[in-house]
Amino acid sequence: MGPTERPGAVMRAAYYEKQGPAHEVLRVGTVPVPRPGPDEVRVRVVVSGIHVGDVGKRRGFWGSTMTYPRVIPHGDGAGVIDAVGRHGDPGRIGERVWVYLAQSYRPFGTAAEYTVVPAAHAVALPDGIDLAQGALLGIAGITGHRAVFAAGPVSGRTVLVTAPLGGVGRAALAVARRGGATVIATVRHAEQVDAALRAGAHHVVNVREGDPVEQIRAIAPDGVDRIAETDLAGNAALDVEVLAYHGSIATYATSDAEAPLPYWPAAFKNLTVHFLSNDDFPEAANAAAAADLTAAAAAGDLRYPIAARFPLGRVADAQDATETAGAAGRIVLDI
């Protein structure tokens, strides 16, 4: 039991008890303060990060259902450890951390004054990293890392990142470049070129200006080795054409779940497609991503623009803003 806990203690939290539109189902009230179980830590949340995946779970997208009768949303956040469970290290109490997968197969996320996570999912946050930045590293950052490294190291290879100014794309740019890759980003608007270069791309291709295949091949004549793909259905034909033999696509989203793939061109090149869903990455991959993302943030190589900050009481507005923010920046809740 940690130093702030008392029998019957309650906290403020956002929660929903059925899926649906934000302003119809999200509530803010008091719930019991959670206790950390064995090998868990409790974190006093300062900032809760929001990802479109959190919105999707609440709306019931992608076939998601409610496993628990009440869900406190948001998988990402940052704060200070205030209690540890049995077998935990009491020396961690008072440590600044960022957390991930807080609401993965669990009912209590970070949209609350306290959350409980496995000790390994509370990552030490260096003093030089703002808590709001730490709160945004989880879902997007780990997915971006996996999209780059699912097929192994990238040193000396060429990595193509689509949607480079989104949450996943920014992380993919940063870790690919730090991993020794030549990084190409594709954008759809001229004003995004400089932003993608600042975010870490070595080269940027505007797919609406000229032939994107010719532009990418001019940078990588033998083809690209890896693609971090945000829209497999929309970009599959282009991806297969610009990939090198034995290259791979790591995809975390698609505009059409039923769209066909160009099978024979992909087969003739012996390509691999990795389908990613961050709730179920191997724990070793999560740990490697957490270390690399923390280092990238500490070095200033990964920084998320924040489009808006909301108080906990306006969680419904915050989730609605997350659906429309896009490349403008991320949304956070100040707890």
UniProtKB/TrEMBL annotation:
NADP listed as a keyword: yes
Q: List the SUPFAM superfamilies.
A: GroES-like, NAD(P)-binding Rossmann-fold domains
Q: Which chain regions cross the lipid bilayer? A: none
From which domain of life does this come? Bacteria
Instruction: Quote the Pfam families the UniProt record gives.
Output: ADH_N, ADH_zinc_N
Please tell me whether the keyword Iron-sulfur is annotated for this protein.
no
**Where does the Enoyl reductase (ER) domain start and stop, copy by copy?**
22-333
The molecule here is called NADPH:quinone reductase
